[in-house]
């Protein structure tokens, strides 16, 4: 929507008309006031006889229902409660207008509502641990961060992570133009848990499927599964003595058998605060991975829900991981100083990451 430019002040209008009266042409006046369009200068001179003391006549059309006081109440209500509802905003102006008028006001003020970000619920003790972690690693340089191997698990489920498509065709015309995006299959879908690690020195593991422990009570991934994984992968992955290994605080990773295995292999593990997925740059890779899967195999969305589809899903996920560009690894590692400073700035609470 094109917004109307601000009116000229009475003083500026009088000055333009005075210059024109002493013989200045429109273009010469424009050179004195280059920020005023030439067409505005012509119109100002033309309408001078219809004004009083340089003030414009009232504009034609229906008077605005929202007064300046109403606008102030709406903006103050938003400032006081950014999550205020449309109904409450209308109540601020006694329902004298429809919500469309409120929307026009918000557009004029360049205000819009955004969906709230999902973040883990933090307590004071969590924020303090985040802050302690940030101060501990604040001195790290980019070279230091490149020594860190970031690790995590990710469950890839068919249909999850598909990027929304955008089109210039209006929604009502999309069906006949063939511009609709198909929905993935509903209900329980085939899925697989994976583990991976990478460093800013552009080294990474493959995307390794994780399978549950058949002897466990719930036959899920246990500390024994993670211990076996670490003993197979980490001695080769962390060949350089100055490498640092990061892993999260999930119970499967903090189990005694896992901590004991890391100590036996003399692996330097990074201290990791609780409830901090936004600190681990590998989280950003998971979103890229899931989008890449459907670039490689868009037909996965509509395959049968069976073991064959699961095999294709696993193979495609591993291929997508291998094809993620090296520059993503470098860039994510280089964001760590900014993430650390963001934690310190927020006093250990939520950050944009």
Automatic annotation (TrEMBL):
InterPro entries: Homeodomain-like_sf, RNaseH_sf, Tc1-like_DDE_dom, Transposase_5, Transposase_Tc1-like, WH-like_DNA-bd_sf. One of its GO terms (biological process) is DNA integration. Residues 73-138 form the Transposase Tc1-like domain. Gene3D superfamilies: Ribonuclease H-like superfamily/Ribonuclease H, Winged helix-like DNA-binding domain superfamily/Winged helix DNA-binding domain. GO terms for molecular function: DNA binding. Residues 229-294 form the Tc1-like transposase DDE domain. Residues 49-68 are annotated as: Disordered. PANTHER family: TC1-LIKE TRANSPOSASE DDE DOMAIN-CONTAINING PROTEIN, TRANSPOSABLE ELEMENT-RELATED. This is Tc1-like transposase DDE domain-containing protein. It comes from Penicillium antarcticum.
């Amino acid at each position: 929507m094109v917004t109307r430019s601000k009116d000229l002040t009475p003083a500026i209008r009088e000055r333009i008309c005075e210059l024109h009266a002493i013989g200045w042409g429109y273009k010469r006046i424009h050179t004195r006031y280059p920020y005023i369009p030439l067409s505005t200068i012509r119109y100002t001179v033309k309408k001078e006889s219809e004004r009083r003391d340089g003030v414009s006549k009232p504009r034609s059309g229906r008077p605005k229902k929202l007064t300046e006081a109403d606008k102030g109440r709406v903006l103050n209500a938003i400032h006081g409660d950014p999550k205020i509802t449309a109904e409450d905003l209308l109540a601020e102006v006694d329902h004298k207008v429809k919500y469309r008028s409120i929307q026009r006001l918000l557009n004029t003020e360049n205000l819009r509502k955004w969906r709230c970000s999902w973040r883990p619920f933090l307590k004071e003790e969590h924020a303090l641990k985040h802050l302690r972690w940030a101060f501990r690693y604040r001195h790290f340089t980019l070279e230091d961060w490149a020594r860190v191997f970031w690790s995590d698990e990710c469950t890839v489920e068919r249909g999850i992570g598909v990027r929304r498509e955008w089109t210039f065709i209006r929604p009502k015309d999309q069906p006949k133009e063939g511009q609709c995006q198909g929905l993935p299959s509903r209900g329980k879908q085939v899925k697989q848990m994976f583990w991976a690690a990478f460093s800013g020195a552009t080294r990474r593991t493959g995307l390794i499927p994780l399978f549950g422990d058949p002897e466990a009570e719930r036959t899920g991934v246990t500390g024994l599964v993670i211990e076996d994984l670490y003993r197979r992968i980490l001695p080769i992955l962390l060949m350089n003595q100055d490498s640092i290994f990061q892993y999260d605080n999930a119970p499967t990773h903090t189990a005694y058998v896992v901590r004991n295995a890391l100590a036996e292999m003399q692996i330097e593990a990074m201290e990791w605060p609780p409830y901090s997925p936004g600190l681990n740059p590998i989280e950003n890779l998971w979103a890229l991975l899931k989008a890449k899967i459907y670039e490689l195999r868009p037909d996965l969305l509509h395959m049968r829900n069976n073991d064959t589809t699961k095999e294709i899903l696993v193979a495609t996920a591993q291929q997508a991981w291998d094809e993620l560009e090296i520059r993503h690894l470098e860039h994510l590692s280089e964001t760590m100083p900014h993430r650390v400073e963001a934690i310190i700035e927020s006093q250990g609470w939520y950050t944009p990451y």
